[in-house]
């Protein structure tokens, strides 16, 4: 348990300082595929993970995703280029992914 708490504190410190490489992408088309998401963000750097969040029952995308880059510079480049861009007829939002303590879904309340 101590190791998990230490990892969380380290992740929180990294996020507070802005040294994160994971982005939150919102307002995506419900027809976006994993491959399209990866292709959309790969011009800005090495994408280590591009993950659409999907409904567990239908396996259809919920309209948001997480994209992780190898470096912070690449992530910042993607934010500048993609935030507010129209993709698939929708105005998408791209920002640094916020982290919360595991099990605490009301972290901002």
Automatic annotation (TrEMBL):
Keywords: RNA-binding. InterPro entries: Nucleotide-bd_a/b_plait_sf (IPR012677), RBD_domain_sf (IPR035979), RRM_dom (IPR000504), SLIRP/GR-RBP-like (IPR052462). GO terms for molecular function: RNA binding. Residues 21-99 form the RRM domain. SMART domains: RRM (SM00360). It comes from the Eukaryota. This is RRM domain-containing protein.
């Amino acid at each position: 348990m101590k190791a998990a708490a230490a990892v969380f504190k380290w992740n929180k410190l990294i996020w507070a300082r802005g040294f994160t490489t994971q982005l939150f992408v919102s307002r995506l088309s419900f027809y976006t595929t994993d491959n399209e998401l990866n292709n959309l963000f790969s011009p800005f750097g090495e994408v280590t993970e591009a993950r659409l969040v999907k409904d567990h029952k239908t396996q259809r995308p919920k309209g948001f995703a997480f994209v992780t880059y190898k470096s912070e510079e690449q992530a910042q480049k993607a934010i500048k280029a993609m935030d507010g861009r129209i993709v698939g007829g929708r105005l998408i939002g791209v920002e640094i992914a916020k982290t919360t303590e595991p099990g605490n879904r009301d972290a901002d309340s």
